[in-house]
Target: Thiamine-monophosphate kinase
Amino acid sequence: MPSVDVADEFETIAKLLAPLAHPEWGRGLRDDVAVLPSRPGFDLVLTKDAIVESVHFLATDPLDTVAQKLLRVNLSDLAAKGAEPFGYLLACHWSGRCGWPEREAFVAGLAKDQAEFGIHLLGGDTVVTPGPASFSVTMLGWAAKGRTVGRAGARPGDLVFVTGTIGDGVLGLMAAQARLSLAPERMAALVRHYRTPMPRVAFAPAVGDLATASVDVSDGLIADLAHVARASGVRIEIDLEPTPLSIAAQAWFDDRVDAEAALSMLATGGDDYEIALTCRPEAETALRREADRHHLRITRMGKVTAGQGMAARYGGRVLELNQGGWTHR
Ligand SMILES: Nc1ncnc2c1ncn2[C@@H]1O[C@H](COP(=O)(O)OP(=O)(O)O)[C@@H](O)[C@H]1O
Ligand SMILES: Cc1ncc(C[n+]2csc(CCOP(=O)(O)OP(=O)(O)O)c2C)c(N)n1
Ligand SMILES: [Mg+2]
Ligand SMILES: [Mg+2]
Ligand SMILES: [Mg+2]
Model:
């Protein structure tokens, strides 16, 4: 382990992390636990995602954006459930590359997104690892009692929508690894999306009010909709032609000769952190109105039918895609 100019974990906790603690419920990070009172009329919604160097982020990524990505992938899971974020527990598994300046950068990233999304640190754990750095967050949020949107509520006749744009995550990884060549501002936009995706926190109340089922797009649009289809006991059919692309992804797409292969790659690449949801046809107008109000793009991709499985079509033909997205082995 390279010498880290840190006395011990208590110094990291007291000097760097304690200022991020929830003023009322974080106990200054000086106790063994955080204690929250219950909130009448709401359910506590919890989620946890870990991120690992070389699996979820690159060793060359700045630690402030690693911290932001850590919070954002978790905020994205809550947003897809229609829940409002409250606070989080954090585990830091520092590697040898995480000296004091890197830890300061990591904490600066946390502070930035705490302010952006209105959340606070509640507690956690700090250890070192001889392996690559990894971090995990348990994010807590609130949803109106009994109103959390699951993966299991899609019904035949529902429509399928996705927020924002699809494909910037996988293209951003390629851009960060210099496996793409586009204009510098396009490359920068894609790398920014890979490092700091935008969780749809502001859209969560609309999801809670209008969606029958919902999931965030982490593994890949097709894979994540397949999770919804399986959980709901229905079939989901989408067309890839309307896949919403950012300006940078469109520039990449315009240079491809095989549009089907290109869209398949974007719809299975993952790391989008958009929301894929189903809703009753009667809810479409209200859903689009809410999206407009948030200046959020929303695209109808397909529909829910009786049956099972997930079908992605291009040119009206169902594509053969083995996984539909990312899986950990
Ligand atoms: N090690 C684990 N222990 C308990 N539950 C887990 C574990 N890993 C995953 N899960 C649960 O399995 C479900 C699917 O996980 P995952 O695919 O990571 O979901 P997501 O895409 O929403 O992050 C979630 O309910 C998650 O809480
Ligand atoms: C260096 C690197 N390689 C590959 C990827 C792509 N990738 C890794 S994990 C993953 C899926 C999302 O992560 P996961 O742990 O499955 O999150 P969850 O589905 O639990 O939210 C993707 C698309 C990446 N983000 N970074
Ligand atoms: Mg997960
Ligand atoms: Mg997740
Ligand atoms: Mg996953």
